[in-house]
Specification:
The protein has 87 residues and is an alpha+beta fold. The protein has two domains: 54 residues, no CATH class; 33 residues. The protein is built from two helices and two strands, in the order H-E-E-H. It has a two-stranded antiparallel ribbon. The longest helix is centred in the C-terminal third of the chain and has 30 residues. The protein is flat, with a radius of gyration of 17 Å. The two termini are 30 Å apart.
């Protein structure tokens, strides 16, 4: 994710979803792009997330389990990278 989109996405996750009692794995999110310009007039795109709909309780449970599995895989991959670097 580009640094220029971090604030917008963070606001969506914290104020938008969490503020409504929702979790990121419990909704369908659409990611759009909005054109912006920096102070020099250079154009860039900023990610604009938007909740489409909440998932059913059953689908939310499945996505939470998938999120946990993916987290474990990514942590293991990161550990392998650290081992490779230090070896």
């Amino acid at each position: 994710m580009p640094p220029t989109s971090l604030k917008t996405v963070r606001q969506y996750l914290i104020a938008g979803l969490a503020g409504s009692g929702l979790r990121h794995y419990g909704v369908v999110t659409r990611f759009g792009l909005r054109e912006e310009k920096n102070q020099r007039g250079q154009r860039y795109s900023q990610i604009v997330p938007q909740m489409v709909q909440p998932l059913s309780p059953e689908h939310t449970k499945r996505m939470r389990a998938y999120r946990e599995h993916l987290r474990q895989v990514l942590v293991a991959a990161e550990m392998e990278d650290l081992i490779d670097v230090t070896a």
